[in-house]
Design a protein that fits this description.
- By secondary structure, the protein is mainly α.
- It is built from five helices and no strands.
- The protein has helices at residues 6-22, 27-34, 38-45, 53-63, 67-70.
- The two termini are 21 Å apart.
- The model has no long low-confidence stretch (mean pLDDT 94).
Length: 75
């Protein structure tokens, strides 16, 4: 992951965490729905790794939200 993009990944991870909690899901539950490991889900939410658009779209599908919600970065 490029360092100049780190802040954007952090915002993305925070939004994923927010909507996951809003749906009452644990990281493990969401990871299972998306077919990734809980560790990978944790790393996505903490901006510890880059994430593919395929996984982002799968997360959106699992959370029943539009991708724009995850990319609405509040300062």
């Amino acid at each position: 992951m490029q360092t100049q993009q780190k802040e954007k990944y952090r915002h993305l991870g925070l939004n994923i965490s927010y909507y996951r909690k809003e749906k009452g899901l644990s990281q493990s539950q969401l990871a299972e729905l998306v077919n990734i490991s809980r560790t990978h889900m944790s790393r996505i939410e903490t901006a510890d790794c880059a994430v593919s658009l395929d996984v982002v779209f799968d997360i959106c599908d699992a959370l029943c939200i539009k991708p724009t919600k995850l990319f609405d970065f509040r300062d």
